[in-house]
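Fold it.
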Amino acid sequence: MKLSRGIDAINERIGRAVRWLVLAMVLIGAFNAVARYLGRWIGLNLSSNAYLEAQWYLFSLVFLLGAAYTLKHDGHVRVDVLYGRLSKRGQAWIDLIGTVVFLMPFCVFCLWVSWPTVHNSWIVREGSADPGGLPRYPIKSMILVAFVLLLAQGVAEAARKIALLRGELPAVAHEHQGSDSDPTT
């Protein structure tokens, strides 16, 4: 459980930091829109492809780095036809099986298929195809980081569900994972 708490802490810090990227993304988008119209009005080009790509990169970071945080807080999409009717123990089994059979292999697969693309991007120092754009290789690296974080959070969640099923954790301990009163975080 110590490892789970460490993984939880890392993803909690990253998730809280990522929240600020949303604000940065909105501000860059607003600036770019104003600069584009103001530039037309005064006859200068105040906008650039770098602003557009920065906004796209920030959205990518929010999505990629927020995935593990979302899993930690049980905020992912779930088809709740059967799950909500099960006991906490039944839900723990569903979560454990889903994590081990689907989430973990998916993360490993994504890491495996992404590695060559990211590696090649670094070798050629891939840049934007648009003039004035940003380099692409750093943002592509975030794909690997995101799936490592998601896989690690999956391990933490699986360990927590196993502990719950063994009776080492109370069935309600996992419900409010992000709260200060939760002994599992």
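Residues 2-165 form one domain.
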